[in-house]
Amino acid sequence: MSKKSNVKREAYAKKEEEKGKKIVGWIFGSLILLAVIYLIWTFSMMA
Asked: 44 vs 17, 34, 37, 39, CA distance in Å?
């Protein structure tokens, strides 16, 4: 492979990794938010 295509491939891989980390962060944030909402709902049902 040429050096130019190797550089492009590495840049693309780095960009994809950043997107992946962002998506994982959003998923975990959403799950934590849903857990908090569920806790509030559960405690309101007990009261």
From this structure: 41, 15, 11, 8
Encoded amino acid at 7, one letter: V
How many Å from the N-terminal Cα to the C-terminal Cα in the chain? 67
Q: CA-to-CA distance for 38 and 41, rounded, in angstroms?
A: 5
Tell me the pTM. 0.70
Distance (Å) of CA 23 to CA 5, 18, 29, 30: 27, 9, 10, 11
The pLDDT tens digits along the chain (47 residues) read: 678 889 999 999 999 999 999 999 999 999 999 999 999 999 999 97
